[in-house]
Structure prediction request, 228 residues.
Amino acid sequence: DIQMTQSPSTLSASVGDRVTITCRASQSISSWLAWYQQKPGKAPKLLIYKASSLESGVPSRFSGSGSGTEFTLTISSLQPDDFATYYCQQYNSYSPPITFGQGTRLEIK
Amino acid sequence: EVQLVESGGGLIQPGGSLRLSCAASGFTVSSNYMSWVRQAPGKGLEWVSVIYSGGSTYYADSVKGRFTISRDNSKNTLYLQMNSLRAEDTAVYYCARVVSEWNFFFDYWGQGTLVTVSS
Prediction:
């Protein structure tokens, strides 16, 4: 199975900051990567797919990049609503298993 | 509007069985790939199972042989039959819609249902 490793596990930042979260795959997954945002007690919300495509309705301050084994999620200017946990997910093959990163908690500094 | 509503969670003793339901609206379950994803308390997301539109099913190794995913087309509902439950199956279980056969990520999620396995 493909392992996904996110860093950092926790990130402290302030409103207005630019932040970057990294996700590394244990083998190449081309651009088959999605990013989700999850708030406490809520279901995950899709932000980015195919590494860099923004899901409809997601603010443009969110962006994704990368290919192969290294990927990043960037928030250009943090807003109060962005403090949450972020997960990457690979979907490299046509069949499961698909795997998630362990999550990055973005907290207020 | 697409909606997914899970039900059926609760407290169950180790070794017991439980069936989760996920009622869908705004789209047809049988025309889509549908998955279950779980999240243990304070932990990350773990994919559990998928049913393809053609009916093929796949499971995570951690639940293979104990869980069964199915659907009722007439009710537009997805199910997860969970047998031989263990403490480590304690989690919030989400049903989620897979975007497409070639894009195995999730665009809609239910609100989740909590399963607690404990004596």
